[in-house]
Amino acid sequence: MAYRDLRQFMAVLEKKGLLVRVKAEVDPAWEINGVTNKLAVEQGPAVLFENVKGHKVPVLAGAIGTVKHLALALEMDSLGGKEMATEWVRRTEHPIPPKSVKTGPCKENILTGDKADINAIFPPVQWHEEDGGPFVGTLGLVVTKDPETGVQNAGMYRMMYRTKNETGLLMCYGQHGQRHLQKWQRLYPGKPMPVAVAIGTEPAYLLAAASKLSHPPGEDDYVGGLRQEPLELVKCETCHLQVPATAEIILEGEVRPEQLEPDGPFGEYPGYMAAERSANVFHLKVITHRSNPIFHGQREGWPSEGNILWWLGLEGLAYSKLKKIPGVVDVHAPLPACCFKLIVSVRKSWPGYVNEIIQSVWGDVELAYFFKNVVVVDEDVDVRNPAHVEWAIATHVQPDRDIMIAPRCPELGLDPSQPISRRGWTAKWGVDATMPVEEYRAEGAEPPALCNDPHIKARVEAQWQKYGINL
Ligand SMILES: Cc1cc2nc3c(=O)[nH]c(=O)nc-3n(C[C@H](O)[C@H](O)[C@H](O)COP(=O)(O)O)c2cc1C
Ligand SMILES: [Mn+2]
Question: What is the pLDDT of residue 349?
Fold first, then answer.
């Protein structure tokens, strides 16, 4: 049974000891930062800060703080990487359309006019010491509609507090929200675009917003697929957008396409402070919220909940796309590489095959912004076993033959490996770590056989007791 709302998911986490309530008073200026930082490093439980100094709204963080939390969010028993990824792909390949309902818990309170004040629902959490201010959206799920196709999107884009009714909104190039804004500006020059933000939803919506998913359909349908039940949506008070009926908090407002303001700094997912840059501005019009709302956020960084949130979805998207190429066996995005790196195992099928795989990752309109490094290995190498991958790179690669570099590819602007002035563009490297069978055969030879003698090993294993060695 799908989770009805965030509260039901929290109850399941709590029952399993994966959520702790902190009753002691915490200062949002620094303590939530410190506690969530320690818990991310030590892979601890989710936390509900019930007593935030100077505010009556509690703060939840770490809801998807470990892979175990992620598996529970998707109601998957398995923690095995491959089964989780395969199941993600299966569900997203079977989307279920959402259901529109007249009203829902997110409409229990409607704050308009002067009462539409971000401070009413947001304890000003300073997630990192050097951030440009408190961030309202570290888990703000931003809803927009494609003005041409009508497909509705949900994307997670950070939002810095500016005033009681304004926040920054960083929608990087390549993101669906930014593409909607660009189309809107072309079709309706000078007019603001409606935007809604959901905070505190059931976990499938959260994961879909954090994950890159191809349109059509939109995230609302993918959420149905992920939770295996339709998502219930209600219409916004001020515009045509539809938002999850059971969300804790909905911010309704608009973005003026031509308005860009300084935003940040902010501690980002590669683990570094990202300097001030320009971003759009969200203008709040109306807040709707549940009674006794829970504010949902997370401390971005490395390691972080944020990195876990989008990782499975990006790995799944890469697998969905690459498995259409004959010979692709498995795909993995190692979590510590924060979606900069993709490992693909293949049955090499024709000359130039590996280069085509690497280039198809870099050239894909959605994957292009993420995977900067692509490693291709033979099908007998386990892409989820770092030791296997290291061995393949060490023993199969001639750097002058097998390393590809592509200049001036796009990136989200957060890669700290070069100064800010060069951000948004990056070179990419790909490594062909498959055995160079073709080169051997061109010389009339065969590559060396593996020396692991599986038949002999199996014979010995079958009579292992004979040797009296206890392992
Ligand atoms: C915690 C978290 C914070 C994120 N912050 C931003 C952000 O500020 N700007 C951005 O463009 N992408 C951000 N992302 C990445 C996008 O959410 C992700 O690429 C997603 O696919 C975007 O949705 P879209 O594909 O519908 O555009 C963030 C992801 C996570 C998990
Ligand atoms: Mn999207």
Answer: 84
- Residues (pLDDT < 70) of the chain are none
Ligand nearest to C-alpha 316: 1
Atom of ligand 1 nearest to the CA of 313: 21
Is residue 167 in contact with ligand 1, taking CB distance under 6 Å? Answer: no
Nearest-atom number in ligand 1 for the CA of 304 is 1
Q: Looking at the CA of residue 156, tell me the nearest atom of ligand 1.
A: 17
Q: What is the whole-number distance in angstroms between the Cα of residue 460 and the centre of ligand 2?
A: 53
Q: What is the pLDDT of residue 403?
A: 98
pLDDT score for 285: 98
Identify the pLDDT of residue 81.
Answer: 82
Residue 215 is given by DSSP the state S
Residue 351, pLDDT score: 84
Closest-lying ligand 1 atom to the alpha carbon of residue 369: 19
User: Are 113 and 256 contained in the same domain?
Assistant: yes
- Residues 112 and 203 grouped into a single domain: yes
Domain of 434 in residue numbering reads as 323-442
Closest by CA position to 251, among listed 219, 275, 287: 287
* Residue 132, in any domain of the structure: yes
Q: How many angstroms from the chain centroid is the CA of residue 438?
A: 38
**Number of the ligand closest to the Cα of 70:** 1
Residues whose CB falls within 8 Å of the CB of residue 466, separated by 6 or more in sequence, listed in order: none
Radius of gyration of the chain (CA): 24
Q: What pLDDT was estimated at residue 304?
A: 97
Contact of 52 with 78, CB cutoff 8 Å: no
Q: Is the CB of 145 under 6 A from ligand 1?
A: no
- CA 362 to ligand 1 centroid distance, Å: 19
- Is residue 2 a contact partner of residue 227, using CB atoms and an 8 Å limit? yes
pTM over 0.85: yes
| CATH number for the domain that contains residue 211 | 2.30.110.10
Pocket of ligand 1 contains residue 158 by CB under 6 Å: yes
Q: What is the DSSP letter of 247?
A: -
- What CATH number is associated with residue 429? 3.40.1670.10
Give 286's strand partners: 252
